[in-house]
Amino acid sequence: MTAGGSNKLLTPGEVASWLQVSETTVKNKYRAWGLKPQKVGRLLRFRERDIIAYLEDNYG
Predict the structure, then answer these.
(1) What are the pLDDT digits (tens) for 25-57?
(2) Alpha helices per DSSP H over 1-60
(3) Rounded to an integer, what distance in angstroms lies between the CA atom of residue 54 and that of residue 41?
(4) Who has the most CB within 10 Å: 22, 24, 26, 29?
(5) 52-60: long-range contacts at Cβ-Cβ below 8 A with a sequence spacing of 24 or more?
(6) Could you report how far apart the first and last alpha carbons of the chain are, in Å?
(7) CB atoms within 10 A of CB 11
(8) How sure is the predictor about 14, in pLDDT bands with cuts at 50, 70 and 90?
(9) What does the DSSP 8-state code read for residue 2?
(10) Shortest CA distance to 34 belongs to which of 57, 6, 18, 14?
């Protein structure tokens, strides 16, 4: 595990569940939130460490 979270890739649904918002909100707002997606083919994935960094920078 690296500092600030792991490199585990999360689906938009997993991120939405974690942030307690809808999956559509994650797909529409990730750019505004400054989250860098990892593209796997046509699919969006987000690194766990990036979500943790976003939460710490903005909420904590």
Answers:
(1) 999 999 999 999 999 999 999 999 999 999 999
(2) 12-19, 23-33, 48-59
(3) 24
(4) 26
(5) 52/4, 52/5, 53/4, 53/5, 56/4, 58/33
(6) 21
(7) 15
(8) very high
(9) B
(10) 57
Give CA–CA dist 23/29, Å, rounded.
10
Residue at token pair 């990036």: 50
d(CA 60, CA 58): 6
pLDDT given for residue 3 in this prediction: 54
Instruction: For residue 12, list its beta bridge partners.
Output: none
Cα 24 to its chain centre, rounded Å, is: 13
